[in-house]
Every structure is written in C-alpha cells, then in structure tokens.
Amino acid sequence: MPDIERICNRYARTAAEERLRWEKPVTKHKLYWEFLVPLKNIRWELPNLCREVRKPSIVSSVEEGGEKKIIELLSEVINKVIPEWKEDFRLNVLNKELSALKERCTYIERHSSILVPIESFAPEPYKILKPFHVVVRFQDEQYIASFFDANINTSGDTQEEAVSNIKDIIIGTYELLDSLNEEELGPEPKKRITILREFISEK
Amino acid sequence: MPFITKEDALKIAHKLKADINTRKNKAHDIAEVRYEGILITSFGIRRGSKKNLGHDFITNDIFIGPHKTKLLAQCPLSREEWIGIITQKGKL
Fold it and tell me: Smallest Cβ distance to A140: which of B1, B27, B41?
C-alpha cells in the first residue's frame, strides 16, 4: 500500500505506527478519523488528499465499503471546513475591497480640485473689489493654483503655498500690466488686465 | 516629479527671449514675452534653489499643451514655430 503509506507518513506520528493500524481492519475507522481530523488545520492539503484517496489503488486496498467511509468522513470534514473557508474568503475579499476603497478615497481627496475664495491681499497694498475664487488641484506631486478668468497660474508644494503663490503672481501680473500702455499689450494681456481691474485695485 | 521643472521654465523663458522681471522678496520672478514690442504673455517663475520646482502651470500661460511646452524647453520647437501656433490661436 505505497500510496496509503505516503499519506500516513504525512499525517501520522510515525509511518510505522500508521502502517500497523492500516493492517488491522478493526482500527481502520479510527485511523481514518485520526488522519482526516488534522486536515481541519491543514486545509490547503485537503484537495490533494481527496485526489489521493480516490485513487483506485488505494480504494482497492481497503476493505469493502471503505471508499464510502472515506467519502463520508471527508464530507464531514468538508462540511466543517468549507464554511470556514468561505468565511475566510469573504473576509479576505471584504478586506481587499475596503483597502481599494480607502486608496480610492485618498486618491479622490488628493486629486480633486478645491475652490479657494480670495478675500484679501494683505499685507500687500491692494484691495479686493469683489471676492473671487481660485482653483487648486493636485498634479504630478504639486498643487497647481489657477485663476481661470484671467488665465493666471502657479504652483506650490502644498495647497497653502499654492494659494499664497497665486496671490503673489496675481499682484505681480497686475503691477506689470497696469504699468504698460494699452498699445504695448497683446490680446491676452489686455484681457488679463481688464479682468484683474474688475477684481482688484490699489488701496 | 513635475513634468515641467524650473530649469525647463528658465530654458523656455530664454528661448522665447523673455525679459525676466526680478521681484525682491516675492515668490515669483515674472517672465515677460514680447513680439515686436508687444507683450504677448507673461508667466511666473517660482523662486527657490531647487531645479525641479514644478512649473507645469506655464503650459496655460504660453497657450500650448504640456508636450509642446516640453519640446520648447528641449529645443525641437523654436520660438518662431511657437509664434506661429499662438497666432493661429488668436493670441497674437
């Protein structure tokens, strides 16, 4: 019975002891039980074992009705083990989905645009005629701040820095464009200064 | 890693023959791009010693996409070609 010996070697205390038991039909039921029960703790081995015990060479080597007994015992183990597997599997899937959702939330939080109201240029000597918003979005490891109406943009390592920087560039652009004559401005700078004058002026 | 770095922005400013308006104690210098004496656009160059400071935003300021902006920094796109592109877009 080389196949059975191989199985017994895997699960028994000693191969010799198990071989002895296999050779005594009276103890066969007990033996099955003893090597099947540990399977509850060795779940990944069960499919292999099932294949092995179904081999004709093994089946023919046990007494009549032995195959049925093995299947019954396997069923019993499976009935106990499978629900646990299912539960483990379900929990694993849920864990993975939860992790994926967490990652997605972090991604959305990080990459979604935020609208930041600009209500003051203090301590710069400029006042806001009407509040406006700038858009701050995360892109390529930096926060890009844009005042889309006037097409003024900048970036920063943090949201705060990006907002601070856009205030600086808005004032810089205003100062530059305001200091030039209209004839010196191309279409885009003309549009920018027209829009900026709607929103800010010197104090 | 930003797609357009400060180094790229400085190269672009140089290539577009921009005048760099240095502003003391401010977060940006301002590059002023002119064509035949007329200001076409301006963009901020962040101050800081890091060469890889992000400047992806200048694609909007110079009216072309990120890829062409990179080409402008890397040489294949010339100032004249850029002038041609922005003229077609009605920015000049």
Answer: B1
Q: Which of B11, B13, B10, B6 has its CA nearest to residue B53?
A: B6
ipTM of the complex: 0.84
pLDDT at A64: 52
Share of chain A above pLDDT 70, in %: 66
Indicate the pTM of the whole model.
0.63
Chain A residue whose CA is closest to B25: A168
> Which residue among B2, B28, B56 places its CB closest to the CB of A168?
B28
Beta strands in chain B (DSSP E): 19-21, 28-35, 38-46
Torsion angle, CA of A148/A149/A152/A155, rounded to 10 degrees? -30
Percentages (nearest 5) of helix, strand, coil residues in chain A: 65, 15, 20
* Contact residues, chain A, for B41 at CB < 8 Å: 186, 188-189
Residue keyed to tokens 């992000």: B54
